[in-house]
Predict the 3D structure of the following.
Amino acid sequence: MTKQRLSKKFWNPYLNKLSPYTPGEQPTMSNYIKLNTNENPLGPSTHVKNAILKVLKTNGTELRLYPEPESQSLKKVISQHYKVNNNQIFVGNGSDEVLAFCFQALLANRGNLAIPEITYSFYPSLAKLFAININLIKLSNDFSFNLNNLNSNVSSVLFANPNATTGISLNKIQIQQFLTKNPQILVIVDEAYVDFGAQSCISLIKKYKNILITRTFSKSRGLAGMRLGFAVGNHDLIHALNLVKNSFNTYPVDKLASAAGIASLKDKKWFDSNKQKIIRNREFLTRKLKTIGFEVLPSQANFILASHLKVSGTKIFSELKKNKIIVRHFNNPKIKNWVRISIGTKVQCEKLLKVLKSFII
Ligand SMILES: Cc1ncc(COP(=O)(O)O)c(C=O)c1O
């Protein structure tokens, strides 16, 4: 394909400063084992499909009408599930969008933002978009980070817990101590992966006004294709998010996504068993990788970060790809010798191990 020269004549000049996020590859062929974007290999609850069909059964008349602008039905179920009030919840089109609203409503024009030096790479892209200065929190040699290592001049902190790319998490007490000591700093905790074994901070929103938590239906609920996420926090913070949302897109959550989210939250049995299966597969894969010379970080997410003592990260990535297994390899010099592997089904984990052994041992 020839590269077309772009005319930037009509562009907002600020676009030249952006560094957009590059999502993991989404191959169109179905014969790949896709372990690169931390999706749920088991898919959503069957109740989700039934709920979507119910919306569609009206011959599309339901779709003729706009969805609820404030997503009240979905918020009601989320609030019951997480034991918070309706006005402590904000919902959006995936947690990426919820995060974008947070950047605009709560982080922009408020001073420096601290993020871990290795974390979800969407954060720096959003910071550029909203012209927010970033301070990096240094990671220790074991890839963990300590909130007490923050630079003194920050107004907000954002991190994923478990942290993206490493899978390592902070516990609730560590976060609570930070909130108590720093009531003037806003802390946003991205709990995209929390269901796979870490401690959630949702209950802290009752006591602390300086914490907001973001969540997604994409990982533990197997609904990445529906685009559904939410934030939980004190009413003042949620109100700020609504101000931006209602100045930008009044209907971020469509009727199918809302029905899917409600059905998923109501199917506790499916949720518990799905989560347990992924945790078991993660432990199995970690154990087996260690026996063939891998170092694997202690993950509480649905992925692991692994590095081999003798074979480079680039080679592992490309050899796996040749064998139709896609994992994620990052250019960041700190983790260039590592690959991030999403936890698949047991069969996928076994296939991965078989291919790894074919060129490693
Ligand atoms: C840490 C983290 N937060 C948020 C997201 C985005 O999730 P969503 O699909 O809800 O936009 C991801 C996606 O991979 C992620 O890794």
User: Anything to note?
Assistant: Residues 38, 94-96, 120, 160, 164, 190, 192, 216, 218, 224, 229 surround pyridoxal-5'-phosphate (CB under 6 Å). The CA atoms of residues 69 and 249 lie 9 Å apart. The chain has a mean pLDDT of 95.
